[in-house]
Amino acid sequence: MLSLDNVTVTYDKETEPALSNLTLTIKEGEFVCVLGRSGAGKSTFIRTINGLQTLTRGAVHVSGKEVCQLSEKETRNLRTGMGMIFQHFYLIPRLSVKQNVLTGRFGKKKAYQNLLGLFSEEEIKQADYYLQEVGLASFANRRVEHLSGGQKQRVGIARAMMQEPYLLLGDEPVASLDPSTSDSIFRLIRTLHEQRNLTTIINVHDVDLAKKYASRILALKKGELIFDGHPSELTDKVYGLIYEEEALDQRAL
Amino acid sequence: MVWFRKRLIVYVLFIAIAIWFSAVTAEFSFVSLFRLENTWDFIQRNFWPLRWELVPYLLQQSLITLSVAFLGTLVALCLALPISFLAASNTSVSKAGYYAVRSSLSLVRSVPEIVFGLIFVVSLGLGPFAALLAIFLHNVGVLGKLISELIEAAESGPQEAMKSVGSSRRIGQIFSIIPQIWPNVLSHYFYRFEVAIRTSLVLGMIGGGGLGQSLMNYYNSLAYEAMATAISIIMILVIVVDVIGGIVRKRVI
């Protein structure tokens, strides 16, 4: 359903590409975790999929369409089918939990409906349903600023689910959460993934989380794909390769 | 002296020269400063007793002043909000549009209210409406600039989240930016409202009606006790508006 062909991204003023010649395919129903050090290109990779990041070379195809060739309207259409969650949640402040979840529908509605908050009864029911799913039903009318980090990420997930996505993207969704909250967030994502055969691609720092939940692991280093395989194939040797320099740096200190 | 760099001496020298130059130009004199007893004497001899029987009339006049300031700034805010999106580098239509809107805002701002007032008093006749228009025009320029700077400083994360759900550019910007900057918008608004009260007094002096006009009339007819009464009412008015602004801001945050 998703393929990258020789994707290269070089940011302005930088000589080293953030992603170089990345070629891979992801099939429907996979749960992919992307490992790598900070700056390895994980975020850039995720963002090429929904067109938030433009490519320097190469092409990304999603369901047969080339992402970078789409018009603005087509890009919007593409994004409505892709839920995305972020490290810093990126919720809308001053709005309630439920209002935030409803913004997940923005891509499917007319401008005046969004502006005035005209949501159908069905959509409101759906928002309640997803809040229930993520365990925040009793927080529906609370303002999002007053939630804890883990709860905010649950709102982010409910917002993404509100899009009824066929693809869920996560850009370091647990990087600012404590270990046990991270695990429960991953468990939630895994459940949603299993219920709907939802294709999921998530960046993560924590190798153990990736091994525990993913059905396939990718590892990036300096923009290059250095590992692609089943979690069980991720040996200590590969692990060492991904984080090699970090170890060296620490020794140097 | 770790906090101080050598360059500082140059700055201090420059500022000292500027102070000296300004003092000479403004005919600053310590002798007159210590002869302020004249001013005090004038106040003591003429400002008392207050003319209490004028209070009902002056309150009526202050209502005009208040209305001019309130309506002028509120309508200005309503117009400045959409304009400020066009005048912010991250939400403008194009680079050219950004510069065009920015420079028209500075152009409007560069004309002091009293100049607008003098023009409108001639073209529209004496009365509060001329003052209202003058305040409105100037504040579109001021609020447009201030709010556009808030927009530029707004966190870009929520904007990215709105893009990711597939919302249109404008809807995404409205929802991700306005809730973020709203408390600061209100605080700018209340400050401009307070300034507008004082401005509308000055505009009253050139024929814009309200308390300012009464103040000028009393001054011209040497009715200093009546003038003192008007001044007291102005002080109370400004303090009350300040307190109300504080309460509203606290509730919003």
Automatic annotation (TrEMBL), chain A:
<dbReference type="InterPro" id="IPR012693">
    <property type="entry name" value="ABC_transpr_PhnC"/>
</dbReference>
<dbReference type="GO" id="GO:0016020">
    <property type="term" value="C:membrane"/>
</dbReference>
<keyword id="KW-0918">Phosphonate transport</keyword>
<dbReference type="GO" id="GO:0016887">
    <property type="term" value="F:ATP hydrolysis activity"/>
</dbReference>
<keyword id="KW-0472">Membrane</keyword>
<dbReference type="InterPro" id="IPR050086">
    <property type="entry name" value="MetN_ABC_transporter-like"/>
</dbReference>
<keyword id="KW-1003">Cell membrane</keyword>
<keyword id="KW-0067">ATP-binding</keyword>
<dbReference type="InterPro" id="IPR027417">
    <property type="entry name" value="P-loop_NTPase"/>
</dbReference>
<protein>
    <submittedName>
        <fullName>Phosphonate ABC transporter ATP-binding protein</fullName>
    </submittedName>
</protein>
<dbReference type="InterPro" id="IPR017871">
    <property type="entry name" value="ABC_transporter-like_CS"/>
</dbReference>
<dbReference type="InterPro" id="IPR003439">
    <property type="entry name" value="ABC_transporter-like_ATP-bd"/>
</dbReference>
<dbReference type="InterPro" id="IPR003593">
    <property type="entry name" value="AAA+_ATPase"/>
</dbReference>
<keyword id="KW-0813">Transport</keyword>
<dbReference type="GO" id="GO:0005524">
    <property type="term" value="F:ATP binding"/>
</dbReference>
<dbReference type="Pfam" id="PF00005">
    <property type="entry name" value="ABC_tran"/>
</dbReference>
<dbReference type="GO" id="GO:0015416">
    <property type="term" value="F:ABC-type phosphonate transporter activity"/>
</dbReference>
<feature type="domain" description="ABC transporter">
    <location>
        <begin position="2"/>
        <end position="247"/>
    </location>
</feature>
<keyword id="KW-0547">Nucleotide-binding</keyword>
<keyword id="KW-1278">Translocase</keyword>
UniProtKB/TrEMBL annotation, chain B:
<keyword id="KW-0472">Membrane</keyword>
<comment type="similarity">
    <text>Belongs to the binding-protein-dependent transport system permease family.</text>
</comment>
<feature type="transmembrane region" description="Helical">
    <location>
        <begin position="114"/>
        <end position="137"/>
    </location>
</feature>
<feature type="transmembrane region" description="Helical">
    <location>
        <begin position="63"/>
        <end position="93"/>
    </location>
</feature>
<dbReference type="InterPro" id="IPR005769">
    <property type="entry name" value="PhnE/PtxC"/>
</dbReference>
<dbReference type="GO" id="GO:0005886">
    <property type="term" value="C:plasma membrane"/>
</dbReference>
<keyword id="KW-1003">Cell membrane</keyword>
<protein>
    <submittedName>
        <fullName>Phosphonate ABC transporter, permease protein PhnE</fullName>
    </submittedName>
</protein>
<dbReference type="InterPro" id="IPR000515">
    <property type="entry name" value="MetI-like"/>
</dbReference>
<keyword id="KW-0813">Transport</keyword>
<feature type="domain" description="ABC transmembrane type-1">
    <location>
        <begin position="62"/>
        <end position="245"/>
    </location>
</feature>
<dbReference type="InterPro" id="IPR035906">
    <property type="entry name" value="MetI-like_sf"/>
</dbReference>
<dbReference type="GO" id="GO:0015416">
    <property type="term" value="F:ABC-type phosphonate transporter activity"/>
</dbReference>
<keyword id="KW-0812">Transmembrane</keyword>
<keyword id="KW-1133">Transmembrane helix</keyword>
<feature type="transmembrane region" description="Helical">
    <location>
        <begin position="226"/>
        <end position="248"/>
    </location>
</feature>
<dbReference type="Pfam" id="PF00528">
    <property type="entry name" value="BPD_transp_1"/>
</dbReference>
